[in-house]
Amino acid sequence: MSLPYIEGDEFHPEANVKKMSEGIPLTDADRWDWLTQLREEAVKRIASGSQGVVVTCSALKRKYRDVIRVAPYYSHDVLVHFIYLHAREEVLVARVGARKGHYMPASMVHSQFGILEAPGKDETDVISVDVSGTLEEVEQDALAKIRDAVKAELVMDS
């Protein structure tokens, strides 16, 4: 699957980066413009001819996912799927701690778990992937689930 990639961390305003680098959790108010900008960038890339786009971001709450979820209202060619990457907190703390040159310290993972709203069963656009395994295992599982979801969506539309 070869699609353009938008790394959400690259779109955070300077104030958000400063807060996170100091170990201060972001508030809902800190996230709204950031999420809106990610949605608009994804829609723009699709409007310019891309068949799809992958956006990575910490859409930890349902209302954050809802900001992205409205993208089809701006461009009817857009289908939104979320890939919910999950693992135990200690696994993610270790992975974040191993990153080099990133502004967010591993201590922030705990605050993210504190506000996390795991997707509900009614969020049918969410694909759940356990990321506790190796990178290769996670990639294979995620790609298989994404392909299945896209095929199902195409069948429903035809």
From TrEMBL:
| Gene3D superfamilies referenced in this protein's UniProt entry, alphabetically | P-loop containing nucleotide triphosphate hydrolases (3.40.50.300)
Q: Which domain of life is it from?
A: Eukaryota
Q: Where is the signal peptide?
A: none
The biological pathway it contributes to is:
Carbohydrate acid metabolism; D-gluconate degradation
* Keyword annotations: ATP-binding, Kinase, Nucleotide-binding, Transferase
Q: Which GO cellular component terms, listed alphabetically, does the Swiss-Prot or TrEMBL entry include?
A: cytoplasm
Q: What is this protein called?
A: Gluconokinase
